Amino acid sequence: MKEQSTTKGFAILSMAGMAVKILSVIYIPLMMKIIGEEGYGLYGASYQVYAFVFVLTNAGIPVAISKLISELNAVGNYRDAVRGFKIARFILVILGIVMASFLIIFSGPLASITKYNKAYLSLLTLAPAIFFTSIASAYRGYFQGRANMTPTAVSQVIEQIVNTIFALVFAAYLMRYGVEVGCTGGPIGTSFGALASATFLIYCYEKNKKIKLPQNYVEVSRTRLTTSQLVKKIIKYGVPITLCVGMTYAGSIVDLTNTKTRLMVGGISDTNATILYGYLNKYQQLLNVPIAIISSLSAAILPAISAAFAVKDRKRVKDKINYSFRLCFLIAIPCAVGFSVLSGHIYELLKFGKAYYIMECGSIVLVLMSIMQIQTTILQSVGKLFTATFYSVIGIVVKICINYVLIAIPNINILGAIVGSIVGFVIPIILNHIIIRKSLNAKVSLIRHAVKPAIASVMMGIVVFASSFAMDFIFGFIKIAYIPNAISTIVSVLVGIITYVFTMALIGGIRKRDMELLPGTVRKLIPGFILRKVK
């Protein structure tokens, strides 16, 4: 099994992540067609609870595996790297059994606490997915620690395809028994997808479990780690990460209850409050498409920074940090601008209803989420695990407080959650930036990395707006409403991509060495007039 560069690993994971998220977004209107607006609201509510249990099980230890293996491999301690993985895998399997049992036993009370009593069956049927994902997560951490992202990427695509097929089939079949039962189709699909993913990863591990040593490697007498020491390292790395991500999702659970309750305080009925929460869930699902790329970047840079930090290569650590922020802004800013400008068109294309104003106002959250995710990964890589957790908690508390006040105001209602998210991300971003600069004694200028993508994105936004307006006018004669919007949206997105890349090339935001990192098939798709502008 070959080790991949950070860039190649990122490219593989991001392409898979995009494919997965696009599939999940396409799946939403199909699922809504089957279970309806209220049903989708219930499904979204049950999934938030599942996500919380999922991160408590799977957020920390897989990252700990990746970090531990990359560090031990960096110093040539390959035997302990393998032993550490096997110990962590055992812990994850036990944890998966415990947490799946917890969800089965407490699905009723959890549905009641969140004020979504009808989501009980959906929560119950999500329990097997917790166990299967705990197995899959262990192997993903192993492969990422060995700097091979291909098994993780392929497993994610397999999981989403299986999930989509089984979810739609079971939802369609079970809707004859009512909305509550029909909503269990999605969770059943999630469990089948997780099983397929785990099976594929086990196959890959069995096929590639032998570590190929470097050509110049010489076995030397080195201090071996005991089982107790390895367990302590796994706990040291895993617990803070679990707390960090867990607190974020705990905030989402509080938000889930808080949102519905405060909407009803503002005079909105129970059913309409559930539908509005469904709108918020769709908005978050759309944000998750580009966030999948940022998550891929995080997964790729964590073992790279951890390995460099383990051998005290400070220059390489700084280079990786600057590289990650540069890529972060290169992706997040144009996506946010595009979402805002084309929000109405995208919502109509995906049959998401009339709640496009949420994306129009809230696309900036995408940039903030991306920055914070990269910052958290950096802090985890250099050992500042509890610091990242503490700052995340501060942001969550602020977000919950703002949501509580604003959502109950009738003229603001669901948009209060957007304001809460913006402030809830800005505060930890500032605190994270300060601690990164102090800890590494490195000048990391977020503004410097963001300026060129921002200029190019503004230009792109203007062109996209004009393009969509022109397309709407030209194809307005077509009587079927969906077709002109679909044409306008697709053409505008393509025009936007070309405009952004061309502007970035003109102002020096994209360089020749960036182009050299792209796969040959991708470079061939870039128009010649753009390539000629790259310096």
UniProtKB/TrEMBL annotation:
Main location, first listed in the record: membrane
Encoding gene per record: spoVB_1
Protein name: Stage V sporulation protein B
Bilayer topology term: Multi-pass membrane protein
UniProt xrefs under InterPro entries: PG_synth_SpoVB (IPR024923), Poly_Biosynth_Transport (IPR050833), Polysacc_synth (IPR002797)
Spans traversing the lipid bilayer: 12-35, 47-69, 90-113, 119-139, 160-179, 185-205, 234-254, 289-311, 323-343, 355-374, 386-406, 412-435, 455-480, 486-507
Cellular-component GO terms for this entry: plasma membrane
Localization: Cell membrane
Family matches, as PANTHER family: LIPID II FLIPPASE MURJ (PTHR30250:SF21), PST FAMILY PREDICTED COLANIC ACID TRANSPORTER (PTHR30250)
Pfam family of the protein (one): Polysacc_synt
